[in-house]
């Protein structure tokens, strides 16, 4: 249960960042297969790598979903460029907890990018007062023949499709 809540909180923060990124004309990711590695500062959370098959519609859907979540959960969302980096600051509610986050994204979004999300929780969320999440993503080529846009291969090998989860073709 705790791990599911932690994943849900992480996904909420990532979606809020994606929604904010649209406001500064974030470069589009190249269509195809991406390796996305998510690591957390916490020693009890192993680094996880997933693969994502994306196209422009999938990225647009993620931005729309992020905007929908962020508009309901976040009271503050600011985003701006600092040189070649995109910096976002947000304040969001996760149940009774306020999550104050600073996200920094950098890279060439047509082949690789990195992100760092630092969040403070007040009161602590599941016993944690802060978190640090690092994201490293790299384009590895076209999607596999058995994949369609929106497919995500999770670290445990399970395949889900974010487009079909949203009722999109």
């Amino acid at each position: 249960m705790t791990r599911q809540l932690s994943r849900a909180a992480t996904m909420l923060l990532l979606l809020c960042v994606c929604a904010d990124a649209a406001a500064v004309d974030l470069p589009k990711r190249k269509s195809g297969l991406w390796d996305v590695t998510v690591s957390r500062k916490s020693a009890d959370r192993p680094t996880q790598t997933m693969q994502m098959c994306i196209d422009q519609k999938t990225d647009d859907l993620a931005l729309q979903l992020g905007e929908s979540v962020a508009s309901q959960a976040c009271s503050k969302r600011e985003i701006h460029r600092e040189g070649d980096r995109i910096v976002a600051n947000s304040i969001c509610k996760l149940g009774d907890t306020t999550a104050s986050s600073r996200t920094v994204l950098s890279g060439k979004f047509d082949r690789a990018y990195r992100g760092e999300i630092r969040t403070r929780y007040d009161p602590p969320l599941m016993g944690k007062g802060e978190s640090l999440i690092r994201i490293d993503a790299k384009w590895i080529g076209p999607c596999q023949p058995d994949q369609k846009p929106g497919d995500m291969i999770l670290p445990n090998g399970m395949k889900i499709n974010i487009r079909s989860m949203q009722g999109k073709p």
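The longest strand covers residues 112-125. The chain has one domain: 2-157.
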